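ZP: hey, is the iron/sulfur cluster complex queued? I don't see it on the tracker
AM: it wasn't, my bad. submitting now with these inputs:
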Amino acid sequence: MVTVCEEASCPNIGECFGRGTATFMIMGDKCTRRCPFCDVGHGRPDPLDVNEPSNLAKSIAAMKLRYVVITSVDRDDLRDGGAQHYVDCINEIRERSPQTTIEVLVPDFRGRLEKALDIFAKSLPDVLNHNLETVPRLYRQARPGADYMHSLKLLKDFKAMYPSIPTKSGLMVGLGETDEEILQVMRDMREHDIEMLTIGQYLQPSDHHLPVLRYVHPDTFKMYEEEAYKMGFSHAAVGAMVRSSYHADQQAHNAGVE
Ligand code: SF4
Ligand code: SF4
């Protein structure tokens, strides 16, 4: 299996691989959504690969990874949104690499949330991550098919069902939001019991994607970070190069996972 880190030529790859951290994308490379900031392909997805969980676990064991982030495309075509496939992956990784910490960065399971959350009871990750991505005012434009309150509910419900598992969410800046809107989303996150935060600069993957409307100044990132700790986040990874999985191991450590 190829890591997202390599496929996306992530600039943090040296640092992350050096720390034994990598991100993998499961359930294919075609998303049933079409978010105009995202570089993932879209269209009718292929059927799930039943061998993917074991192949993924083999790759993780061969790479001797200490911390993995498992993410996926949105699979609105599946009755459980792919929750069982996530659980199958967690099980296989636990079997081959019991010491490896597993973070899942999940889609929104819209229309099948209850079912998906129940399925996770069979095999829980060490961290549950779901990105809000942007402020609610920009959802229609940036996250068509998604719903701000639904995403917050996913995170809150997961935490209520599995209180020992830390929850995490992330935002991009540069899509046209204001600082006050970002701070309000952070407050909403805390009201929905989210413990870890990532905020990074949006970069336009191609001319066909949403334009960058501002490059956020390092002082502003610093302000977000300070506010995050005041609001009670256990960890905040905030900065231009921050991605959802950046320093994921350190974040989890601060949240008491490792
Ligand atoms: Fe991989 Fe995420 Fe690190 Fe980039 S930030 S190298 S995608 S783990
Ligand atoms: Fe990209 Fe996720 Fe949107 Fe799919 S749902 S287009 S993977 S951001």
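AM: back. The longest helix spans residues 83-96.
ZP: great, adding it to the tracker
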